[in-house]
User: Fold these one by one.
Assistant:
Number 1:
Amino acid sequence: MSLVCDMAYFLDLFTPETWDAFRKQGATVSGFGERHLATARDRVKPGDILLCYMVRLARRCGALEVKSSAFTDSTPIFTDPDPYIIRFKVNPLVLLDLDRSPPMLAAAIWDNLDETKGIAKGTRGWGMNFRGSLRLISPADGTFLLQLLQKQRDGQTAYPLTERDQRHLAVKRKVHTLTGQVEVEVPEKGDDQEEVVEHGLDPLERSIETESAGRDEASVRQSIQIQAQIAEIGAKMGFRIWVPPADRPRVLSVVQAAHRGAFLEVLPLNYDENTLDTIRQIDVLWLKGRSMARAFEVEHTTAIYSGILRMADLLALQPNMQIRLHIVAPEERREKVLREIKRPVFSLLDHGPLYEKCTFLSYDSVQSISHEKHLTHMSDTILDEYEEHAEEG
């Protein structure tokens, strides 16, 4: 193994399916979505280490040494068609089977990483730092993880898959379409009523609470606060803001007076009435001129279909529309949102899978963005650092 002393460590996300495909193809090329082009080109260099993280199972599964600069190649490796076209040649240092991959919640990892030690397991939002490929990992954490993975490669301690792990492995399906394979999720019976657990936690580690009327009211109040924060972030960045008339008075009561002038009372859009009726109901829109830049649906109730359906309706009515779509929900609802986005009904749309255009943003992420000191000088691309794509989860 030839490693340079100034190497950097980066996060490399895999699903169980892409990990299997990667290994079957020889484990010599790792790929990332097009949104990672700038980071891949400008920050990752030969000799750096990609530390592999298994989403859905929250396990550390491997380590790869970067052997080339970033290049573009659409030859199918991970799926067909393959969205992971920003690639590096790699040397596999550690490749672990799923039941040999150490879970993040294992004390050997949790209690020794700077990012998690001292934090109670299951603390809300702990998994936010493991949601984006090519995120830089500190030298201390990177060195620790590489050594741990090398030790595991040599010792092969067993980490049996939990019931929850098995459930996540069972729901993925591939469907053949005229344009290639599309991945879908078929939720199990009871998923719609089940409270979603924190990413990486066994269901036994959390109790399931029944939502009371009082809790529903609190959720609605919280959703208005989040809706207002999203609107205010956009206003600070120079966008004009649309909020449905029914929500506007409550949202405006929370927004600072200096930003209320950015709110629209009439949409300046030229679409047919069906499309406009759909657009008018979206929780928050950011607009530049006569174009929509981003759309947000805030979900807080047990059933999270309404916002996803609205996004799917919008794309069905205007399949060529260039707009960024986001489902915003509490962190604990992350897994459910990502599963629902990949249901067959949303994955088999004529214009392509919804999950290619619609991402998840947690309430915590919105609040973090709202606390940025220089939003008025920032681009909306800051959302790219916080959003999560279903294709990676």
Number 2:
Amino acid sequence: MKTILLAATAFVGLGITLNAAESSPKDDVLAAAKKLGGKDNYSWKTTVAVPESAPFKPGPTEGKTEKDGFTSLTLSFAENDVQAVLKGDKGAAKTSDSGWQTLAEMANEEGPMRFTAMRLQTFKAPAAQVEQLVGFTKEVKKDGDVYSADLTDEGAKTLLSFRRGGGDAPSVSNASGSVKFWVKDGVLSKYEFSLKAKMSFNGNEFDADRTSTVVIKDVGTTKVTVPDEAKKKLS
């Protein structure tokens, strides 16, 4: 009888250990993001879909990053094409009409350049952004290779707010959102997040409704080239 009880206890204990070792869908997504972030380099493309009536229509963003090194971006915003380079907490950018400037220099300007500086100050490469997104989720559910979740209201509001430090930025209210992650061979390959809110800027209120889709590519074969002028601004 003692032998049977001991065997049963051992089996139950083993079952508890196995269950504890099982990862949740949220853990799977975090692991996939960390695995991507651990790669030597990768590229991505972000596209943003907004209604025709939207006052701001972001263009696509092309990005390249290397582990513990530089991140280069090509983006368009408010009809301005911008080339940017980031490393750590430093950054520099240029447009077709201006030379390379630090983010601090851009933030002191009026108009689109100030907003671009604020966007770049809060920028996160995909591996880091997904970790942030997961932190903003409620319950993550899995269906095949796709993971999906609703975002917390506060998380959606944070994602729509790009102010850091001084300067004007739209205020956000009634924010909500959802997110999807695609994982291939244990590595993040794509993600998409949708956000809705009421936004107010300079006394004008408008509805924010956008879906950002990020596709990862060229993992391990991406090469990041940084102009000498940009390097000087980052030194």
Number 3:
Amino acid sequence: MAPAAITSVCFDWDGTLCDSGAAGRRAFRKSLAEFGIAFSDAEYKAVYTPRWRCMYEALGLPENSWQEADRRWLHHYEEEAPDLLDGAADLLDTLRRRQIGLAIVSSGTRSRVIKELDRLGLRSAFQAVVCHEDVVRRKPDPEGLELAMARMNAARTCCCYVGDTAGDMQMGKSAGVLTVGVRTEYVDPRRLEECLPDAMLDCVAELPGILW
């Protein structure tokens, strides 16, 4: 796929555009502490996935507590107000000026993601916002990304997906789009690199160097 052919870019939200990594980890630590479970930063990084219930299982939380843990995580996360990652605002402005179609495909709860977009004044920037309530099969299944492309009327050969987890890269590859991984301090980069993304960035603001 020639980068020059890219006319649509779909992003993961948490950890890719939104600097929610530290906020999410704090909320996760608070919610699991209420069940008597503690973990180190290294343990969190080793098992991190946007699919919280996979993390619950990896950290030993009984399945009958997962729904309540979800509720408590949302309660604690609402106390946070994460901003965009450095360079993300300028990146979005650059893409919009070039008339690149934009979308979000997130495993996050729709109410929470929309609330953050509204607070940051970004809701109108995206032609499509797909969250976990919008799909039957979550990442790494390509359903969410394919739904976003359909809503944007975007061809997969002209689309790029940018994310910070192995699930993001697996989803993008399954959907047949250009995949771009972003290294962060909250996800083990080796897990990302093992998925063989088409490109790897140290910062999402580097994306124009890949596209043009």
Number 4:
Amino acid sequence: MSNVIFRGMDGSNPLGFLAAMGAFRLVDLIWPTERIRLRWVRDGAWRPDVLGMPVGGEELCTVLHERAPWSPLEVFEELGANLTVRREVFGNVVRNAARGATTEDRRAAEFAAAFGCDVLDDKEKDRIGYTDLCFITGSGHQDFLGTARDLARKTSAEHLREALFGPWRYADPKLSMRWDPTDAREYALRWADPGPEGVYSVWGATRLAFEALPFFPVLPTGKRPRTAGFCMRNRAHEFTWPIWTNAVGADVARSLVALKELEPETPDRAVLSEMGIAEIFRAQRVRIGQGKNFKVSFRPARAV
């Protein structure tokens, strides 16, 4: 058994953090009998270090590509290309996912819980309350589930190798979920119109990040559904995530990313330190643009 450090991923980047969590989840599913654990180490930045690995880094890329139990997107064909669906449609898909869940395979049910909630819906727009990690909903020919399906078809072992071990070259055309702050290319802050340049992303990182969604379920709280890790603060919608230095399993990691202790403007360092949390990052989820011509992106994260 060995440990593998994913040096391509930066824990201060929301896409890097989500990609690390997605890779960790897949590795845990591939080798359920092993004691797979994750911690973060300082290596120029906060890097994910996965312990208990039965293979080395090079072999891991092939194993992930060929053997990983990726998200069962075929179960969600009824939803179409996006999550902006009516409550009845989503409810039917959720019930089918729940009926198909087994002790060995709960993937469909976990992704259904991460996609949205039909208990509290958006009555004005006649659609479910969907995850706060859904930044694309069909405008500009950018579709949430459609992009995930395209990534599943096009992402190779080489793309995964770039995501895990770097460097990230941002050479892959389109297919971005807009989880990387570099996607927030605002016209007013650039020398030229960024539109004609097109969008370039890191396919491997985006596909792995999609696999992290089950760590962030959508739950009915108050008047609207809430996604784990997100909260409103000073009228800003923010995503907060922890960096921990103790090696933990997937179930403990699931609890760490949803801790209430992460939410205060100034979290209690002493309390979090006792849990092994060394740093907290926070990124605003913002709308850029006017009217229907807007895009959703993350601002660059800041250490809390």
